[in-house]
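Bug #77: duplicate submission created two jobs. Keeping one. Sequence:
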Amino acid sequence: MRKRSKPYNTPSELHNELTGLKNYDEEFRLSTLPIFVSRMPKRSGKGSANDATFRSPKIVAGYIDEKGKPAIARKHRVSLHSVDLKKLYDSPIRETDPKLYKILEQRLKDFNGDPKKAFAESVYKPTKDGKRGNIVRSIKKYNTRDSRSGFLVNKQRAFVNNGKTIRLDVYKRKNYKDIYEYYFYSSLHSFDKHSKD
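Kept job's structure:
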């Protein structure tokens, strides 16, 4: 058996290499063609079943995305040093804490939208009596991209995204004919439904 790491560009290269070998006749030598050996890649089943970031399990009611369409959104905390003007606008503090929103917005505008420069100095939460409140290190932000796929954990008190491990979730529910329907959901594919008496 001859091993060759470099592939043959043409069949004639293989024919020339077989010339002079006693165990190959001329007819067989000219009829041979190069073969390409393909090996299946090794895929590991290791990895986490879920993402490390825990989000609120509550879906924001009536959330409308940038395109004006209804979307599934959940709130989660982000570091102040990663908050630009777009993320700030897409935060619930715009309605719940307008004073803090104005302070953060002004800081970002003063530093051309660069959060690292804008929040290099600490930001303090405004209070009713005008005194300096608690330091602000993070804010809540609406998240639509990471709210579509995942599952509930900690007795349904938190939501996490799927990890890198391929997983199959199986659910069952009775339909209107009182027959169980089984739903199979892979972390890579959409729902598939099967009925069973």
